[in-house]
Write a structure and sequence with these properties.
TIM Barrel, alpha/beta, single chain, 370 residues
């Protein structure tokens, strides 16, 4: 039976920036709570179903698909969440609590260039029964392109890693002072102390934008970026960036799985062969800003290069994109764990081969003697 309604096309494994909620990934279900219809992607086909009705109504109970989605047996994860430690608006503990209220089984705390929120999130995870995946989002750049690399299951207690991140954070602070100076020249008189007064260990443009809103210079943070802070705008200051290769190596050195974040923004499809060669393990295929066409494109690229397909909301805690806005089946978390085991096995095998003299360890690079 076909019900004729106004359709919002939603596919399993796909989402749209206009969606209120999306459950993504193989075997899962995309849906809207608002009007429209649910279109569930089968194998090579679309199945049209009536709009998702209110929970607990007879129509809802009659839908085995929606019932399974809400079943306790179904486990989901949001693998891209920011906290107040970087440019999010809620502390790590509250982020985990929100994940629990959203019905998530797991959450990845992936703050920009910082792992300071991981410990508190893990403690909160024990309290609320939510698995917390230690993660990070490193900014990198090459050829005027900005690529963010997510690192999952990193050794967040590594002193070496903490020291490297500390240097990146210092560069961020220096950049922020330059941006504030430029804004002052443009007649936007804000104090740097107001910027650092906003909770957050890693200073970034979102903090500056928020102060601009608070002081009445712009109405929204989006306006701040559109008029002043975005790339190429009057107050924009380029930042020191790791190369994507260095970011991947940093993550792998602390035992993590490197994944290219929101590839739509990176626009670096042509770099994927090199990134894979460097050790890239996955692509964030499912993201709050990826529409159906974009998602399908990156699904195909992930399959082409043998990469894991991950996904997350990129939520900053509050606003238009709440935690759990994009969720993926827990099976993706399990695949990340399998990738960790495979990476470890390769390292052990390589060490054994070196020990037996069957392969040579690559010598450390040294500068020329003068």
């Amino acid at each position: 039976m076909m019900v004729k309604l106004a359709f919002h096309e939603v596919r399993v494994g796909r989402t749209s920036a206009s969606s209120g909620n999306a459950v993504l990934g193989g075997g899962a279900l995309g849906y809207w709570k608002e009007g429209g219809t649910v279109i569930v992607k089968g194998v090579g086909e679309f199945i049209r179903r009536p709009p998702a009705p209110a929970f607990a109504t007879p129509a809802w109970r009659a839908s085995s698909l929606l019932q399974e989605m809400a079943s306790k047996r179904s486990k989901f994860a949001d693998l891209h969440v920011h906290t107040r430690v970087s440019d999010g608006w809620v502390p790590p503990e509250e982020a985990v609590e929100r994940a629990q209220r959203a019905g998530l089984a797991a959450i990845a705390i992936a703050d920009h260039d910082s792992i300071s929120g991981v410990q508190a999130a893990i403690w909160a995870g024990n309290k609320y029964g939510v698995e917390v995946i230690p993660a990070v989002e490193l900014s990198s750049g090459i050829d005027n392109l900005e690529l963010h690399i997510l690192g999952y299951y990193i050794d967040w207690q590594s002193k070496w890693f903490a020291n490297r991140l500390s240097k990146l954070q210092e560069f961020r602070r220096e950049r922020a002072t330059k941006i504030v100076d430029k804004l002052r020249e443009l007649g936007v008189d804000i104090d740097y102390n107001l910027v650092i007064a906003i909770d957050g260990g890693v200073v970034g443009r979102p903090h500056i934008a928020q102060v601009m809103v608070d002081r009445g210079y712009v109405r929204t943070t989006d306006e701040a970026f559109d008029r002043y802070l975005g790339t190429g705008k009057p107050a924009y200051v380029s930042k020191y960036q790791l190369s994507p290769t260095d970011a991947i190596k940093m993550i792998k050195k602390v035992g993590g799985v490197p994944v290219l974040a929101h590839p739509l923004f990176a626009r670096a499809d042509h770099l994927l062969p090199k990134l894979v060669e460097d050790g890239l393990g996955g692509i964030e295929v499912y993201h709050s800003k990826h529409d159906a066409t974009t998602t399908e494109h990156y699904e195909q690229l992930a399959q082409k290069y043998g990469l894991l397909m991950t996904g997350g909301s990129d939520s900053h805690g509050i606003g238009e994109i709440p935690i759990g806005h994009v969720r993926v089946p827990y099976s993706i978390v399990e695949k990340l764990k399998e990738e960790l085991v495979a990476m470890k096995a390769k390292e052990v095998t390589a060490e054994k081969l070196v020990g037996r003299g069957l392969i040579k360890r690559e010598p450390a690079k040294r500068g020329r003697k003068k």
